[in-house]
Amino acid sequence: MIHNEPEKLIFEQGSAGRIGVDLPEIPSDLKVLPRKLLQTRGELEGFPEVSEPEMIRHYTRLSQKNVGVDGTFYPLGSCTMKHNPRMNERVASMKGWTGLHPYMPVSETQSAFKMLFEFEQMMNEICGMDAFTLNPVAGSHGELTGLKIIRAAFRARGEKREKVLIPTSAHGTNPASAVLAGFTPINIEVDPDGSVNIEALEKVLDENVAAMMITNPSTLGLFETNIKKIADMLHAKGAYLYCDGANLNALVGKARPGDMGFDVIQTNTHKTFSTPHGGGGPGAGPVGVKKELIPFLPCPRIIKDKDGRFAPYFDKQSIGRIHSHYGNFLVLLRAYVYLRTMGDKGLRDVAEAAVLNANYLRVSLAALGYKVPFNRPCMHECLLSEENMPKGVVTLDVAKRLIDKGFHPMTIYFPLTVHGAMLIEPTETETKETLDEFIKAMGEVLEESKETPDLLHEAPHITPVQRVNEAEANHPKKLNLRWKKQ
Question: Are 422 and 410 in contact, with CB atoms under 8 Å apart?
Answer without folding.
Answer: yes
